[in-house]
Amino acid sequence: MLPELFDRLRATFRHAQPLQAFGMAEGLTNLSRPDDPLPIRRETQGRPVSPADEIRVVNEDGTTSRPARWAS
Description:
Blueprint: H1 3-12, E1 21-23, E2 29-31, H2 38-43, E3 47-48
Antiparallel strand pairs: 1-2, 2-3
């Protein structure tokens, strides 16, 4: 969800805590948690649900992107 929508939800539903979720039944599922810091809940899709899940961000040529850097 866009950060702006997250902010609007918090402003409209003051007693609710918007959380992010992304995934599919066949594999990786990411969730933000209520105890995650606000910037994490607002700007990310959270963390993998299973400790066995791994995420790898790759560049167009298939090489692994460096941490904290957008893949080109």
